[in-house]
Amino acid sequence: MNERDCIHCELPFDTESYAKRRAGGKINECPDCVDELGTETAVKYLGLSTGDGKAAALSIVAFETEADKRAYADAWKSAQGSIKGANGGLGHATGALNGAPVRHVSHQSGNPNSKGRS
Ligand SMILES: [Zn+2]
Question: Quick check: 24 and 43 in contact, CB under 8 A?
Answer without folding.
Answer: yes
